[in-house]
Amino acid sequence: MKKISLLGATGSVGTQTLQVVREHPDQFAVSALSFGENVERALPLIHEFKPELVSVKDKSVAERIRKDVPGHVKIVYGLEGMIEAAAYPKSEMLVNSVLGSIGLEPTLAAIEAGKTIGLANKETLVTAGHLVMERAKKSGVAILPIDSEHSAIFQSLQGQDRKAVSRLILTASGGSFRDRTREELRNVTVEDALKHPNWSMGAKITIDSATLMNKGLEVIEAHWLFHMPYDRIDAVIHKESIVHSLVEYADHSLIAQLGLPSMLVPIQYALTYPKRLELKQTKRLNLWETGSLHFQKVDRQRFPCLSLAYEAGKAGGSMPAALNAANEEAVQGFLSGRISFLDIETLVESALENHQIIKDPNLKAIEETDRRTRAFVRSQIEKKS
Amino acid sequence: MKKISLLGATGSVGTQTLQVVREHPDQFAVSALSFGENVERALPLIHEFKPELVSVKDKSVAERIRKDVPGHVKIVYGLEGMIEAAAYPKSEMLVNSVLGSIGLEPTLAAIEAGKTIGLANKETLVTAGHLVMERAKKSGVAILPIDSEHSAIFQSLQGQDRKAVSRLILTASGGSFRDRTREELRNVTVEDALKHPNWSMGAKITIDSATLMNKGLEVIEAHWLFHMPYDRIDAVIHKESIVHSLVEYADHSLIAQLGLPSMLVPIQYALTYPKRLELKQTKRLNLWETGSLHFQKVDRQRFPCLSLAYEAGKAGGSMPAALNAANEEAVQGFLSGRISFLDIETLVESALENHQIIKDPNLKAIEETDRRTRAFVRSQIEKKS
What per-residue confidence (pLDDT) applies to A184? Predict the structure, then answer.
């Protein structure tokens, strides 16, 4: 029985993680979980999965749920609470699916405590990949990726000659504006952007998918997860999202992982790794039913966010943290109707230009970068609106 | 330095094996090689790779080459000679790329002698998979497949949970008549059949590719190589021959091996396994250059040879040996212009109907099956012509 700490239990990856646990009650249990303030969604989950510790957004949420949760359940809150949940002694594994840079410290705490990490929180590696991977190595802890692309790469590396890896190739659906010209991107609405062709995800990721910043962040994650230089990480547009990513080897052989789009597969793989279990809720892929798979080159002129991510990644230090913060604020600006879609890339670019890079930043420097970059982008947005 | 015995050195796989050796002179050497009677092609190879033992078709060929080969090179011939080459004491590995059922006994001898086997000879597993795999297991010898499909499956199984394999999916180019109707197949010529869209291969395999018998034989090989029941081996038409085959797991995740069509990759992988080396002579696959990959269901009405192979495989015992012998004779009949393309399937079918199955056949029973089936098919061809 593998005991799990789950951060972000009411989010998309969180609920799907619980689906996997639900399907294999003899294999997995949830010792601790966290959620923000979605009490309505969280309470039934607490009653169903019976964690011993629950962490919530703040004191007021903690007080609200106290009477609806069995007395023996410990309730904690805030970042402190999340860290306590992440490093909960009885858990073997942390599944971190919270959104945003708040996911970083709990991950580090769980690494310190020797937990296996199932990582769905992008920001952890984007902003602090150097710290996370260094500490994971020191603690002898495995970082198992929970998203379709990195899981695909991770699966395609198993049992292979690591020294012979020549290239990682991330597939990208291309998002909601895959087939639009630059001109057509000028006036797209929030509603247009939120229509993702293959995956049903949160608003932030859906916009990141449309700008291809999502792929850019994944490139940075892949750099850290798989110790791969940026010039050996490629992206290719693949609109069907069937080939989830590929690894190329020195003999020009490629290993790829495929399947119908479902987050359940990478989630379960992280939980069962290195084994695999049945997964009844997913459908079998028959390629003759799909018929054809399409691939096209990423047009970096049309999607400059991807180039910005490569640049930030190559610059290293605190630059990826600046990239991430600038992008979060810019996307927020777009979602709230204050800036246009193409302003996202302009704002990120000027934030990177404005950022004074800090080499090998510690946690405090990363937080400082985050705070300052957000302030900068917010002030730029205010000027525009 | 890995020392290799190479059977079938002047054939297509043989010469490509030597290309791989040539590219890595610090890694591989050829201790022993065999060829049939293509002296012109063989002599430069003998001078280049300097084997200590050379086996040829018969005594007359042996006498012909004696004066052109350095005096210290031992020259042997016939099946005896091939067995001596296969089990040559200084070799670590046998690469068996001879065509036809003559490849079986040398393989068994090499297994007995504890050599790693790189197997490009289909007939070995089709006719005697039960014997080969049993003896390989007993001797603790690895059987490494050398053809693109089984190598792809083998590569896609590395580091994965073997117990969780749910299906093997062999891709098939569909051969030269992929898009023809049954009606159009009626009058195809030998010349039509020999135009294979993706691979340049020998005449026999090219015809087998057009009838899909090639895929049928591969299904039987896959059954033995990967211990997989026939109802968990599938085939899919994939005209680009980029995805070389796939493995499906219990979680509906598929692992696949991809690359531009080249036999050099599976050959080198067998030689370097579990490592990989650079392979300069092959081209990198960029999926955006390929553009799209197509898949379609195999129409077993149009390609009954595939169904016949499944039936023979499921029947087991000596039936696959009968299938193979009948097919070889029928293809020969077609190539020599004595029967039509569609006669191939009819002849194979009647040979299977005519065959009295022998359970768990030994070498002698397999040879007997081969001999009798060939005689039966030949007599049928004579009746027709």
Answer: 87
Concatenated DSSP letters of B309-370: HHHHHHH-TTHHHHHHHHHHHHHHHHHTTSS-HHHHHHHHHHHHHH----SS--HHHHHHHH
| pLDDT, tens only, A307-356 | 999 999 999 999 999 999 999 999 999 999 999 999 999 999 999 999 99
Q: Which of A155, A252, A288 sits opposite B253 (nearest CB)?
A: A155
CA dist list (Å): A181 to A150, A195, A212, A303, B353: 29, 17, 14, 10, 63
Whether A7 contacts A33, CB under 8 Å: yes
- Residue (of B87, B81, B210, B93) closest to B146 by Cα position: B93
H-type alpha helices, B28-147: 39-49, 59-66, 78-86, 104-112, 122-139
User: Looking at residue B24, what DSSP letter applies?
Assistant: -
Residue-wise burial string across B360-371, b where 16 or more C-beta atoms lie within 10 A, e elsewhere: ebeeebbbebbe
Q: Could you tell me which CATH number the domain at B2-145 has?
A: 3.40.50.720
User: Does B72 score more than 80 pLDDT?
Assistant: yes
- Residue A297: its chain B contacts at CB < 8 A? 288
B287/A257 touch (CB, cutoff 8 Å), yes or no:
no
Q: Does B246 touch chain A (CB under 8 A)?
A: yes
Q: Are residues A152 and A124 in contact, defined by beta-carbon separation less than 8 angstroms?
A: no
Picking from A332, A385, A384, A324, the residue whose alpha carbon sits closest to that of residue A351 is A324
Which residues in chain B have Cβ-Cβ distances shorter than 8 Å to A294? Answer: 291-292
With an 8 Å Cβ cutoff, are B252 and A287 in contact? no
The answer to whether residue B16 neighbours chain A at the CB level (below 8 Å) is no
Q: Which structure tokens are listed for A190?
A: 């929030």
- CA pair distance B144, B120, nearest whole angstrom: 9
Interface test with A, best of B151, B293, B296, B303 (most A CBs within 10 A): B293
Q: Does B162 touch chain A (CB under 8 A)?
A: no
Distance from CA of B276 to the nearest CA of A (A): 6
Q: How many residues does chain A have?
A: 385
CA distance B88 to B92: 9
Tokens for B105? Answer: 């006994």
> Under an 8 A CB cutoff, do A276 and B160 touch?
yes
Task: Using a pLDDT cut of 90, give the percent of chain A over it.
Answer: 87
Nearest to A251 among B248, B252, B265 (CB): B265
Structural domain boundaries in chain B: 2-145, 147-262+283-303, 316-385
User: Cα angle at B269 between B268 and B274, to 5 degrees?
Assistant: 135
Beta-carbon contacts of B70 under 8 Å, excluding residues fewer than 6 positions away, are B50
Q: Does the fold of domain B316-385 match that of domain B2-145?
A: no
- Is the Cβ pair A294, B297 closer than 8 Å? no
For residue range A117-155, list pLDDT tens digits in order.
999 988 899 999 999 999 999 999 999 999 999 999 999
B362 contacts chain A (CB < 8 A): no
Q: How many other CB atoms are found less than 10 A from the CB of residue B191?
A: 8
Q: Which B residues in the span 276-295 are in contact with A, Cβ-Cβ below 8 Å?
A: 276-279, 282-288, 290-295
Q: Give the residue, B320 or B179, on which the prediction is more confident.
A: B320
B230 CA to centre of own chain: 19
Backbone angles phi, psi at A111, to 5 degrees: -60, -50
Per-residue 3-state assignment (H helix, E strand, C coil) for A44-88? HHHHHHCCCEEEECCHHHHHHHHCCCCCCCEEEEHHHHHHHHHCC
Residues A259-311: tens digit of each pLDDT: 999 999 999 999 999 999 999 889 999 999 999 999 999 998 888 999 999 99
CATH of domain A316-385: 1.10.1740.10
Spatial distance between the Cα atoms of B79 and B86, rounded to a whole number of angstroms: 10
Q: What interhelical angle do B213-225 and B319-335 show, nearest 10?
A: 150
Q: Which of A262, A274, A283 sits opposite B161 (nearest CB)?
A: A274
